[in-house]
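Hi Prof. W.,

I finally got the Serine protease prediction working! I wasn't sure whether to trim anything, so I left the full sequence exactly as given:
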Amino acid sequence: MAAVTCNSLPDGLDPVIRQAAESVVTVQVAYTLKEHPVVETYASGFVVNARGHVATSAHLLNGFRHVLRKPGMRYRVTLFDCRTYEAELLSESEHAGFVPDTAILKILAPPDNLMPVAIGNSDDLKKGDPVFAIGSPHLSNNAVVPGEVLETGVFQKKPPLVPLIQASTVINVGASGGALFDASGKVVGLTASCLGADTGPAGFACIRNGFFVPIDLVMKFARPFIIGAR
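And this is what came out:
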């Protein structure tokens, strides 16, 4: 798989942002035949608990629907400090009517010092609240993008028709699946998509704002797969 560009968290970074960033990961997926990657893609994600469960975007898997459970599939999670671990897919929400674009992975041998996110309450968000998104655009980790909540309860025109959070944060390729945090550093959403895009020198990028799956829905989807897991 391609190497992740490791960007150290800078000295003097706000402690709230630093702690949040330590919970965000890079997710890579590849299907291999005889040890040679046939298809490979990447996204962001975040650590849900100390047992190694990771939330990410289901659309990361779009090119792999026919081989998701086959032996050639590989899932790799790279932490904020570039330690890398193999993972397995537990579930993804392609057919879940109540939550869009969410997948749950499990790190196979999680380290003892794994840093899970602090879970917030997306129902408490209001228009104008400050937020920041963290992800790994273009396989470059620890990218922090500040913004504010533009709307809550936004419905897109395509199913599943569930309320999303809209925020003024720019999303580049690979940032999907990352985390949206409130001002206290609690995760309130999973990066899903953007409104208005352009293709420039740096590749695909949002030119207006992003949509996020509320963390309440993400955890509702994830809970059956992580309760009682070791």
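The radius of gyration is 16 Å. Does that look reasonable to you?

Thanks,
D.
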